[in-house]
Amino acid sequence: MTSWSVAPEPVGSAAAGALWRAYYTEVSDRWYELHEGRRTDPAELERGIASETGAGLAAPTGVLLLARYDGEPAGTAGVRLLDPATAELTRVFVTPGLRGKGGGPVLLAAAEDAAHGLGATRILLDTRNDLVEARALYARHGYVEGAPHNADVYAEHWFRKDLRPRTA
């Protein structure tokens, strides 16, 4: 039987690094292919990967979650506090070969639990036009599109979700 598990992971671990590289490569290549008809220049790709250390995804104000499928690293989601009540969801990624097997919803649920654990009552995220699968996932799980909450040059859609109060 196949199964998903999700747990916090140090940003600097080998598994987290490999998944960050896969995520960044995919979103960068998709953007360049759409806008310039080419893949990301290798040197630019390396600079982009190196520039995002993930420092905001560490305790006490953040967490990187790593999903495993049958024990193998298969996806990530990052959560960081923007203020005491607001968390931001970032780096949501499931490896291409495992998409459609339930990893996205498992990661979202774990990220929402992590946001609660950090004290957040709402969660925000941004994404792009070309990431249609991500936008559909968020909408299916109660995220509502709204006004921009940041000025990220690549952000084209902004979502939010009020987190349900935890029950004892």
From TrEMBL:
Organism listed in the record: Streptomyces flavofungini
InterPro entries assigned: Acyl_CoA_acyltransferase, Bact_Acetyltransf, GNAT_dom
Keyword Acyltransferase among UniProt keywords: yes
Name used for this protein in its record: GNAT family N-acetyltransferase
Classification lineage: Bacteria, Bacillati, Actinomycetota, Actinomycetes, Kitasatosporales
This protein's UniProt keywords: Acyltransferase, Transferase
Record bears the keyword Acyltransferase: yes
Matching PANTHER family: AMINOALKYLPHOSPHONATE N-ACETYLTRANSFERASE-RELATED, AMINOALKYLPHOSPHONATE N-ACETYLTRANSFERASE-RELATED-RELATED
Residue ranges annotated for the N-acetyltransferase domain, each copy included: 18-164
